[in-house]
Automatic annotation (TrEMBL):
Sequence segments annotated as region (Disordered): 1-25
One example GO MF annotation: transmembrane transporter activity
Name used for this protein in its record: MFS general substrate transporter
GO cellular component, one term: membrane
Major site of localization recorded for this protein: membrane
TM region(s), chain numbering: 41-58, 78-100, 112-132, 170-191, 203-225, 313-330, 337-357, 363-386, 398-420, 426-449
Organism: Decorospora gaudefroyi
Amino acid sequence: MADSSSMEKGVIVQDTPVSPTDSTLEPPFDRAAERRLLRKLDFRILPVLWILYLVNFIDRANIGNAKIQGMEKELNLIGQRFNISVWVFNLGYLVAGIPLQIAFKKYGPKSLCVMMFCWGITVIGCGLVKRWEQLVVCRLLEGIAESAYISGCAYLIGAYYSKREYLTRFVFFCTAGIIAGAINGFVSSLLAKMDGTAGYGAWRWIFIIEGCITIFISVAFWPLVPQFPENCTFLSPEDKALMLARVKADGGHVSDDEITFKKTLGFLKDWKIWAGVAMCLGVTENANSLANFQPTILKGLGYTATQAQVHTIPVYLTGAAFSVIFAYMSEWLQRRYYFYILGWAVLVAGLAVEIVYPPNPKVRYMGVFFIASGCYLAMPVSIIWVSMNCGSGYKRAVAIAAIINFGTAGAFVSSNVFLFKETPRFHTGFSTGLGLACMGATAATIYWYGCRRENKKRDQRRAEMPEVLDESMKELGDDHPDFRFAL
């Protein structure tokens, strides 16, 4: 029998071990106990994934920093050769993203460290290449190795948290990528001083040292990466019982879900996933442009290479603060569409400044702040908003992978419209970014209207059904009559 002190905490202590897949707890849960559980999850899950993503983004974006530290000249990156080296990374994402996400769901979160170890090797390879063709191959392999990392982390976060808590946690996770942009500039400016050491140029040391750090982190963090909820070991039996009950009631994780090729294709027939792809693509294209070309853009404002690296730092820090503040507001108000549009509006303002190209470089520098802030708010909203509306289990995993990996197709565009001959104005690049951003806003509006209309239809149909239904949410997912789409 449960003692009274345990009951006051909102959990029941049993004499027998807690089943990893079941719980006697039912909602509504004790709010004080939930708050204590959330603090434990926040301090145990988010910092680990945050650090890993920090390293991930540094490795992905360091090619932009290496370019202005001598790589362009040494590898003879004439014409569109640098752009090819940039977009081929995203080809790896498209090819391997969904298959590796399914592997992540099947084999568990420790696979994130395996991915990290593999891409660390490819980053070192980028620093050892002799020809630009070799750089292209290394970047392709790096993209393949990284393709399921962000989507895997997004799924893992959603496995532990409810829908109401999902967005802010993912945005906090995404700030690692934003901060990485700032750190990249600072670290690259320091590594630039190693120019000539052991006969290697500064750009080579950027890749080699950051790749070695990646491999070290992947090994060191292996025991720290949390397992899926049913296998977690860092919670007490009481907290684990509450956590599993919350997952069962509102989570997006199903431990015994099965997947087949036919089911995967069935998931991808859902129009909402492709609306999410369009939303993500519209802003990701601009985010990728910022990561890969910002040092070049800032150098075009009159800064030296080192000054350009340093001036990327406040841009990323501002974007991180903006995204966190408004993500919290979105979650508090339980509104996603309005905040996606807010991010889009700020992004468009920044793009307009760069397209007009005012003569004052300080004004153009201000436009870069607007681009970063808008991208880093709208991008996570598009991913989490759609994924939480895709039920649970493998469908959510496939949805996240599709949105992130097909959404990165914007990099194919950005890497081919930021033309070398237009440096530093890049009129074609910014104009294309504006068009894609408007496409994303249109997709978001259609998605919001469609989900709102479907909710009204379900409300009407549900009133004609029995109060208790035979079908379970686990079996039907977002097709269940009681499922309502977040707006």
